[in-house]
Write a structure and sequence with these properties.
The protein is an alpha+beta fold. The protein has a domain at 24-67. The chain has one helix at residues 49-58, and strands at residues 24-28, 40-44, 62-67. Strands 2-1-3 form a 3-stranded antiparallel β-sheet, covered by helices on one side. The longest helix is centred in the C-terminal third of the chain and has 10 residues, at 49-58. It is globular and about 45 Å long. The relative contact order is 0.28. This is Acetone carboxylase. It comes from Nocardioides panacisoli.
Length: 69
């Protein structure tokens, strides 16, 4: 008998309504409620990266953007 791995869905963009595969990780935290070393992650497709970075950056939450493998 062969063990079959369950099919996995690709990680998708965090933008509202988007179902495109994620190509970027936006690392962020809210300094009012998170410790300085805590990082939350939003995933982004190519098309939504700039908009999500702008949203997080305007609030002072964006810490880094990295490629998503």
């Amino acid at each position: 008998m062969v063990d079959e791995q369950p099919a996995t869905e690709p990680d998708v963009c965090s933008a509202k309504g988007c179902r495109e595969p994620a190509t970027w990780q936006l690392l962020w935290n809210n300094p009012k409620i998170h410790t300085p070393d805590r990082r939350k992650v939003w995933l982004s497709c190519h098309d939504h990266r700039e908009g999500l970075e702008t949203f997080l950056g305007a609030r002072g939450f964006l810490r880094d953007t990295l490629p998503h493998a």
